[in-house]
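Bench log, entry 3. Co-assembly request; chain sequences pasted below exactly as received.
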Amino acid sequence: MNPQNIVLGVIGADCHSVGNKILDAYFSEAGFHVTNLGVMVSQEEFIDAAVETDAAAILVSSLYGHGEIDCEGLRAKCIERGLDRILLYVGGNLVVGKTPYEEVEKKFLDMGFNRVFRPQVDLAEVVKMLKADIAAASRP
Amino acid sequence: MNPQNIVLGVIGADCHSVGNKILDAYFSEAGFHVTNLGVMVSQEEFIDAAVETDAAAILVSSLYGHGEIDCEGLRAKCIERGLDRILLYVGGNLVVGKTPYEEVEKKFLDMGFNRVFRPQVDLAEVVKMLKADIAAASRP
Amino acid sequence: MRYEPMAWKDFLTQRKSVLATWPTGKDVDLEGGLRYQRDIPEAKNFARAMSGAKAKGRTLIQPRAGVALIDDHIRLLRFLETEGTADLLPTTIDAYTRQNRYEEAAVGIEKSTAAGHSLLNGFPAVNHGLGGCRRVTEAVTKPIQVRHGTPDARLLAEISLAGGFTSFEGGGISYNIPYAKKVELGDSLRAWRYIDRLVGWYEENGVSINREPFGPLTGTLLPPFIGHTVAILEGLLALEQGAKSITLGYGQGGNVLQDLAALSSLRELAGEYFEKAGFTDFDLTIVFHQWMGGFPEDEAKAFAVISLGSFVAAAAGVEKIIVKSPHEAAGIPTKEANAAGLKTTRQILSMLTDQIICGDNDIIRREKNLIREEVACLMNAVENASGGDPIQGIVRAFAGGLLDVPFAPSIFNRGRVLPARDNEGFIRLFAKGNLPLSDEIMAFHKERLAERAKAEGRAVTFQMVTDDIYAISKSKLIGRPK
Amino acid sequence: MRYEPMAWKDFLTQRKSVLATWPTGKDVDLEGGLRYQRDIPEAKNFARAMSGAKAKGRTLIQPRAGVALIDDHIRLLRFLETEGTADLLPTTIDAYTRQNRYEEAAVGIEKSTAAGHSLLNGFPAVNHGLGGCRRVTEAVTKPIQVRHGTPDARLLAEISLAGGFTSFEGGGISYNIPYAKKVELGDSLRAWRYIDRLVGWYEENGVSINREPFGPLTGTLLPPFIGHTVAILEGLLALEQGAKSITLGYGQGGNVLQDLAALSSLRELAGEYFEKAGFTDFDLTIVFHQWMGGFPEDEAKAFAVISLGSFVAAAAGVEKIIVKSPHEAAGIPTKEANAAGLKTTRQILSMLTDQIICGDNDIIRREKNLIREEVACLMNAVENASGGDPIQGIVRAFAGGLLDVPFAPSIFNRGRVLPARDNEGFIRLFAKGNLPLSDEIMAFHKERLAERAKAEGRAVTFQMVTDDIYAISKSKLIGRPK
Ligand code: B12
Ligand code: B12
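Structure output for the full assembly:
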């Protein structure tokens, strides 16, 4: 696992590209090697890229509301493909409609994501967490 | 009891005069003889005017929030002064703060008012009710 | 007119009886107040905040807020400065205190304590006294002002200024005519002479206290020139007694160009009249009040009204805006609703802060000229009636209907003036009562209203006025027939 | 460029395969659709509503709304027309349908039925088929439009137009570049040729169907001229196929004067380009979109953004405004939140309806000239690349970066253009990529940005762009450093 490498993308049929471009710039600036798959990324594409780059984390965005449907099963597929220590982060407008963040977080933690972020998250905080989480995951 | 005569005023230390002027014009137009006491009217002044004009109803306004304190005891004082069949209407922003109308209505009905109105009330409806209520009260 | 500060000796004599009108009066002493004020950090001085806003071209936002009990009031104000990001804080005084009915205010405090929530529509500062005021002013980080509507606010001023408030709203006309029924105008003017003298004394002693006459008056279809004349007169009376930091106000009328013209002319005319009267050492700033008439009940609509007012404030570049809440039509706002009004306002102001919107244009120029002439008519009439004494001039002008505020409750106001909107929503005069306006001016008003009447196929009657009063609360600017 | 309607024979051949792409396609027949459309009352025809608004100088309000299930969708729309007083209704299509992924839409319908609330971000009209669409269009009293973001919307158009919708949003560029990743531009343009031909056919047969290219594109710091060029090109392509009722759109940029200039120039330029291309029988109207970028999370602030957009719409006098809700930053709005956005908008529009606000002024004139020149640069480049065929011109222009939409997801978009705000909040170009703008024009953009950079004491970098993208959601217009 290369602790520098992360995979980034917007899942499903989601076309929201603005946040994705900003995340790419931000995490690159913060020292990561970002493989940015852009928008409309399938679970398979995420996993292929993670395998290929030996990534430490996959950062999934979903803005358009179908996150619940699109993200289901990603963790299981990762394990299937041998990515059993990979970190899964997800953020954006994850479900349809204004929903208390706690509910959303629980839903996606239950799906196997390590961390769940609201759209207003401070990216500096995310970088800190990601570095710490990767360090923890890298320990034998 | 003269079914045409009504007394109008804004109770307490309340200076809101705009609605009062409109009510005066509206009820006069609708055929009532309105004794308009204007703003800042005490319970005693209302009752004196009602006694003097042999009024069928007193229309109390309270806009400024102290309605609860200012209106307490008006019914008892009416009875004391022999106005035992007089109709008491009250309307406006009767309590401090945005409050469900049902709560406000209950509070003022309990105080002895016959009808309680929100500021958005349609005055045409009020005229109808008032005529009907006066007719009912005039029956032996 | 001659302007003369009140003799200090007379002030001190009066002072004794003023302080004796309620027990908390005895705690106040002038020197103690001054020492206390001197220790207030600059950042909390209202007058400085206002002149800072002028220098930086910023618009400061201020809510109205006041509840019965000290701790609740502090919690409310803190919420408004943190969550609401208010730049300036108020302490709105309850309506019993405004009428000097301190016994009833005491009952209100008791009942509020018992009920666990405020049964008063404001903070009874006199009853809470010096200590209570200081607890409040010390608990906040922003400059804080007393906002009320008190014809005779002498005791309130003594207590609250010594209590650390650095701005005091009101005036002998603007806190009588719209707020009282039977208070003689001469009495309230003399009471405010005292208050202005007190403010002047603080100024002489190096403590600047902001004074803000209440511009919107009845808040209901007020043609700009009436409010402007009152504001300028009260400004002159405050300057006469030594006040220096003067904030004149105007309430949103609803027609954007009329509002822009009004705001710009208020600043110009006040400056000119002040200087013509011989005052030079003053710091004039302008406050704009979001719509002061009946609000729509629906909160989404209320947000629109709040936003439109904020837009005008930004376009006009005023120093301060007084903010309404989405609860306006219903009742005193919760702290959340109050903060919501502030946040909407802030968002509009921030989005517009670097923008030029409407510069000057022909219509604005036309309206400014009109206001200038109208104000001149009224100011001349007061001058002529005054025999040299401004207070006499004002009292006589109101008695003769030369000054007349539409819809006001005071029996010392003639109440013959009836305004209505023209076909574009400008507020015009339908009946001028006895206002000393020239024939040309009245011809213009009438012509504009005739245009509307024609468009609506009805005559200009009181029904039109009523329709206009209801209009904004029914989602329109102009009350057209269905 | 030559404009030629698609041969009817080719249309019919293509039609067979289009209808075969999903089972519900087989229910659609052209004549049946026509008969159905002819029976729709005039008051429900979208094209007529738009031209009526133009004639009366009114601004109609329209929300976005769509949920997975038919009954819920009907309830939602009815609520928006009654409580929200919407003048025009939408049916927003879900994102699976937009990508022709009808199987996934079917899953979404199932899961939504199971969950008891919508798990889809729109109404899957293709899956619901002709019957479903007719139930919806019959259940409402207002004209209703399909709003989506579908590169290949041929089947959706067939079903929804035969299903009683009288307006269809989108275009071959505007529903590809911002909405898709790998769809060839030529493919989407040809798909939309088909759709426009279908609309043209209805027109030829006496049924007017409104067509609305999607103006705001990525909704993110879009300089007016880019959107305008795309809108004009899509207008031309629709006219080519016989569409007549054309509504061109523009999304709020945030600087009021730039927005006013943009709206006024969109109308002028489109008219001119349409006529220059030989089209005369068209009915052009303008739609303004309230802020299409990131919204503030706080609802009170969102109301301010909604209000400011409404203000601009009123000042510009557009025929239609698309309304956002206070939930925008969070998720698809509840029906109440959606209605709240409508009510705020209505209140602003009604208050301003009889007012003239900003007429023309020097800044608006400057910006209009700039936009005119910029659009000319781009239109010429497309013309030159076209070899006479507009579709070729557009495909080649995008390939060469002569047309380029900032922040778009499509790999057929170069994505080299970077916009940023100048010191007054006008959207300018920081990097022009390969856009064929003249040196004078670019010198103006650079100069204006340099002014801001100087004011902020930093260079014009990508950080500035990012700051500007976040700005409105953080209560500012310009993303200044702290
Ligand atoms: C204009 C106004 C003022 C003006 C009044 C000028 C004047 N002299 O009239 C000024 C600026 C002076 C003012 C002052 C104050 N105001 Co004020 N004011 C308003 C405002 C904005 C509009 C009132 C109005 O004229 N409406 C138009 C008329 C036509 O409507 P109306 O008054 O509601 O009257 C109609 C109905 O209520 C109904 N009605 C009334 N009475 C009755 C009786 C019967 C029997 C019936 C059937 C119907 C009926 O019919 C009337 C005609 O349609 C309202 C809020 C609002 N409504 O938007 C606040 C409001 C009434 N004011 C309020 C307050 C608190 C005050 C102050 C105490 C200051 C403060 N703390 O903020 C002072 C009052 C001091 C005092 N001594 O009274 C509060 C009351 C709060 C509450 N009840 O919880 C309100 C609701 C604002 C708020 N949300 O905080 N105010
Ligand atoms: C601009 C925009 C569009 C543009 C997008 C252009 C483009 N190609 O990018 C257009 C107009 C095309 C568009 C289309 C649609 N949109 Co849209 N759109 C928006 C809007 C207004 C802003 C998005 C944006 O760019 N924000 C700015 C960027 C910087 O912020 P961001 O995207 O949130 O990304 C940041 C954070 O979320 C976070 N983040 C994101 N992912 C991750 C992941 C991790 C691991 C971390 C740590 C952080 C993180 O960091 C990012 C950078 O700061 C939002 C609402 C809003 N936010 O105000 C709606 C919104 C996202 N759209 C929405 C919808 C539904 C759609 C549509 C389906 C149309 C519709 N039904 O209304 C289509 C989508 C079709 C499709 N196939 O995807 C909904 C989603 C609803 C929901 N979740 O319940 C929203 C929320 C609006 C709403 N309230 O209805 N949209």
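Residues 120 and 130 of chain A are 17 Å apart (CA to CA). Residues 5-138 of chain A form a domain with the Rossmann fold fold (CATH 3.40.50.280).
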